[in-house]
Amino acid sequence: MLDVRKLRLLRELALRGTLAEVAAALSYSPSAVSQQLSALEKEAGVELLSKAGRRVQLTPQAEILVARTAELLDVLERAESDLAASLSTVTGTVRVAVFQSAALALLPAVLGTMRREHPDVRVEMVQAEPERALYETWTREFDVVVAEQYPSHAAAHHPDLDRRRLITDAIRLAVPPGPEHASVASLQDARELPWVMEPRGAASRHWGEQLCRRAGFEPDVRFATADLQAQTRLVESGNAVALMPDLMWAGGDSPCRLVDLPSGPRRTVFTSIRGSSVQRPAILALRAALETVAAELAARMD
What we know:
Blueprint: H1 4-16, H2 19-26, H3 30-44, E1 49-52, E2 55-58, H4 60-85, E3 92-98, H5 100-105, H6 107-117, E4 121-127, H7 130-138, E5 144-149, E6 161-175, E7 194-197, H8 203-214, E8 220-224, H9 228-236, E9 242-245, E10 257-259, E11 266-274, H10 281-301
Parallel strand pairs: 3-4, 3-5, 7-8
Antiparallel strand pairs: 1-2, 5-11, 6-9, 6-10, 6-11
Helix pairs in contact: 1-3, 1-4, 2-3, 6-10
């Protein structure tokens, strides 16, 4: 019988492309991955990998195994969920990927709820860019992802990820305090000012640039950082303006002045979980805690 652990390595190679990336993702050495895949070839009795320059590629027979391995992993995950549901207490580890503003606004209260109501559940959190986190939840690196979607900019969809809206928040122009910027009352008023945005490639950067271009100007992005707390400091200190979602202000007051944007754009924050694990009690408990905290926060923000 074929070894499930070796089959998973083959699937990881199909997803990630190189032995080195598989090794890094699973904390193996590349040579160990290669040895395990060679052993799988002997078990299967067919060639699974062929050379393509310095890389390896999967044979048609390997592709068959990869497809069946995905089905097998789903079945095993559902079995684990059913087993956990049969217990009288909610236990286990839940691995969560979350982007920064949601981590700041939601996670402290969510973790407090989990400690009080489900003390036997261990929650592990990693801050991650949503697009990568969605992919890695699909590949089983994480159990739950809290991700975001900007207006007219669809977040990536992956097969069998159960997606549920968590909260929406308004996006506004954050303007430095003080008389120097008192005349800024619209997006167009900020056309000559320095801007801070996330680095190129981020959904918020693409959306923000397009918003400014539709308003008739190219933003002077002098500062690029994925750290929204750093962005707020640049605005508060008078060095830049920025497009900020309201969740960034959920933790307290800020001296920044917030200017409404045309059409009142809103960002959507959502959770995604693999369909094969969505009924696992620990994951259900965490999603419920996220939704309760988000609902309370939304009521305060409205």
